[in-house]
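Collaborator request log, item 7. Partner lab (contact: R.S.) asked for a structural prediction of Cell division protein FtsL to inform their binding assays.
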Amino acid sequence: MPILKTFDVLLVVIMLAAAAWTFGQKYQAEAVEHEVMLLDRKIALERETIKLLEADWSLMNQPNRLEELAKAFEGDLRLRPTQPEQIVEPNQLPAPPVQLLPEPSATSPQKFASAAGAKAR
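Returned to partner:
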């Protein structure tokens, strides 16, 4: 009979340990779920803020409003309409054209081949 009592006590201890582990996992999962809920709220708030800012941007960039502002501050900012002759093509700009391919140099494979051939002779 003492073996049965020891076995029963061992089973009770194992059950208590399993219950404690399950309890801890449950609260850990609830904490993660709460964190996900908070992040979802933040994402929703950011999306709403983006929509409001986009609406504000479209109101601020209305051509009529910009024209009124340009007229109101014409003296301070010295703004004038763009003349057609001010628009140029990229090749008319004063900067030199950018070279896309590198020029052959001393490090090209042909130079290495000729230098290796000269050493082999």
